[in-house]
Design a protein that fits this description.
The protein has about 140 residues and is mainly α. It has helices at about 5-15, 15-40, 45-50, 50-75, 80-110, 115, 120-135.
Length: about 140
């Protein structure tokens, strides 16, 4: 079976939202994985107070991620932005609570640098976030492609 340009275009259209999610996830991952260590490196005070840096980076990165997913991936309109933001944040809040408990255990218990320990949580977050956001946060009959 030959792969034609028309077949490729049809496949891209069929999976467009998933492809946009992957691109948005890549952008958010780069931002999220960069912001935390940048705080630790640029402001040495944060290295000793890495939990404060974690909370600051999570708040800022969550707000950025919300707007990237809303505008780039799911493109919802006619929705309550407050409801969407609330359900978006609810997903990340649960992950952040687990992160806040686990990061000190990894850093102090296993003696892993916070710069390396933090990315471990990103993998589970990426997988779960697509399903949560597509079925709960941005679920609507008013969605556009």
């Amino acid at each position: 079976m030959k792969l034609s340009l028309a077949m490729i275009k049809r496949s891209v259209r069929q999976h467009e939202k998933r492809l946009r999610f992957i691109v948005a996830g890549g952008i958010n991952t780069v931002i999220g994985l960069s912001f935390f260590p940048m705080l630790l490196i640029i402001y040495p005070w944060f290295y000793k107070n890495y939990m404060i840096a974690l909370i600051i980076s999570q708040i800022i990165c969550t707000i950025i991620a919300f707007f990237i997913y809303k505008t780039l991936v799911f493109r919802t309109r006619g929705q309550s932005i407050f409801r969407e933001f609330y359900t978006f944040v609810a997903f990340y809040f649960v992950n952040y609570v687990m992160n806040i408990v686990a990061l000190p255990a990894l850093v102090k218990g296993l003696r892993i640098s916070p710069i390396y320990a933090q990315p471990g949580f990103t993998v589970a977050l990426i997988v779960g976030s697509y399903f949560w956001h597509s079925h709960i946060t941005f679920k609507s009959g008013a969605q556009t492609g």
